[in-house]
Amino acid sequence: MEEKFEELRREFRALGDEPPKDVSVLEECLSVAQMMRLSTEELCNKWTSYALENKKSGAPETSVDVSLLRQHLLSLSDRKQREQQNTDLVQPMDIASEDSPFMTTDDFFNLQNYGVPDIPISMAKKKNETDTSRGNLVGGTSAKIHRGLAVIHELLSERVESDDTWVSRTDRGQVEVEHVFSDRQGGVETYEAVVPTQILKSRLEGHGEEHQYMFDEIPDMLENTRERVRRCESAFYRHLKARNLLMEDTRAGPEAFCQASPDPILAVGRIRVELERGSNTDGVQTRSRINAKSTLLESDEGNVVKLDLDQVSSGVALAPGMVVAVEGVNADGRKISVSALHDDTYQLGIGPSKEQPNDLMETIEGSGLVKTVVATGPFTTTESVAFKPLDDLLAQVRITKPAVVVLIGPFIAEAKLPALDKVKAKILPEELFTEVFLPKVRACLESLTDDGVSAKCFLVPHLDDSFSDFVVPQPPLDLSNAGDLGHTMAMDNIELLTNPSFITVGAGRGVNIGLTSLSILEDLSAECMILGPVEDRISALCTALVKQRSFYPLYPPSANVPIDTHGLHRLEFPAEQDLDIMVVPSRLKNFAKKVHRNVVCVNPGSICKYDRSGTYAEILVDPSSSSDRVRRVSVVHV
């Protein structure tokens, strides 16, 4: 790579220009040369011509200059292609003309009469082989993958207002806020550059094979939702008993829900709401909001009792579906007067059982400090599919050189990308993903490898992605419709994860990170109530997720979240792992907060908001530390 940089510098000097000092600008120049199949000399000449036309002087100074050059070259290429097509247009024959010759059967099969060149079979075969040998943007597959490349080039060459707004932003690379979570700051920080990986594949590899969503039978749904209550019941009793938190005569079990008694009881169940489904004056189905007077508790056997929460003031967030244990008295057999409420299942170590192993774990082994970048889509502006926000994010990744890059969808949300409407009959969204998005990511990872950093990239799908399964838990992105490319493309450093997923960074215990693209904070905020004083609402919601050991404890779920109840256990944290970082993307303001059990919850924001700059998160972790594994989280503008 350094040899190519030096060659490019020599060509700029030969033209009398001082070459760019920023290595990322040189990388962008080489990327343009490769895409347009230009030599370094030709690229420099193209730049000189473009600079003269646009009253610029010298070599390109920033990535924006190179991006504008790319648009200019693509526009010229597209114009040349259209001119060539216009010259080849067939002039229609005037059948009514007297000069028009009578068409015989032989003439009908003579393609030259219609302006179509008669190419010998040998030449046609040679041409096909040439096209195949050229490969594509990611290299090495059949020519039929290119049926959408002309459309892609047309889209990339279009100049739209949203791209101009994006390029002209002024907050590029600015750190909006830095959250420090460790006192061990200062000194020389050494970062892990080589990160070997050990991958444990998920059982959610199959698309549409294991899903029961919309085919669930009611008895199965009830059994699936009560299974977790069953696991928590005995664990809660043992935990409270071992810590002498229960009185000697405390009763537990099914009778606590329905038998009237003055004795203290312990009841474990999931939170429900009276009138979970209702109708407004127009007959539209609505959901009743939870409040202190409408809260019910349902046991694993389906027994339901009302809760009197007037004495609870411990700063607890409650929402339908959460599993809790309550202490109190059921004096009349219909209502429990709650004296204490326990919602912390985290301390119980309750997770997927051995019969239902959580096989979504990724293990990354290494030592020293590890830089991790987490970014959430969308990765392009609303009116464009040029992925300029992604380009700028990857340019900053090349500078910061993280060992782990996490990209969370949506990657291509057709419903929210008007630019795709006019060409969706010509190109599939997954083809745009595999021929534009992935090559950009691969080029960035290869650049880091050349610099001695063995980076790994993880892609987490989103329900809005046009080529993902609309079900939760969500399998990895489905590239089966992207032609041969979806099966043969080299993905050595790119992993397609499920939603949610869990990764472990570093050797030994490492740093455990939970990832999801579900908008659980917004859904939970709309459905929960908070009893007692709390530091702030966001911290209380994040604490509730940690205590419930689940990325989506809400049930019934939001109308936009298609929960498959057979996979509810896959939304839980692994029983054998203590979480260190929980990434919970949201449209709410970005944040990084240390909550219950020292778990750091991070909302990185989205890197692009329509045509305005967004943010991403840079996380510095110390896997070798016995405490304070998360050093700091910086929220940075793209």
What does this structure look like?
- This protein has 638 residues and is an alpha/beta fold.
- Helices cover 29% and strands 19% of the residues.
- It is built from 15 helices and 26 strands.
- The strands form six sheets. Strands 1-26-25-13-14-15-16 form a seven-stranded mixed beta sheet. It has a seven-stranded mixed beta sheet with strand order 2-12-17-18-20-22-21, with no helix packed on it. Strands 4-7-8-11-10 form a five-stranded mixed β-barrel.
- α4 crosses α7 (149-157).
- It starts with a helix and ends with a strand.
The mean pLDDT is 77
Strand order of the largest sheet: 1-26-25-13-14-15-16
Q: Which range does the strand content fall in?
A: 15-25%
Amount of helix: 25-40%
Identify the overall geometry.
Answer: elongated
Q: Structural class of the helix and strand makeup?
A: alpha/beta
β-strand number: 26
**Radius of gyration computed on alpha carbons:** 30 Å
Spans where pLDDT lies below 50 across 5 or more residues? 89-147, 196-209, 353-361, 484-489
Number of helices: 15
Spatial separation of the terminal alpha carbons: 26 Å
* Major β-sheet profile: 7 strands, mixed
Features:
single chain; 638 residues; alpha/beta; seven-stranded mixed sheet; 15 helices; 19% strand
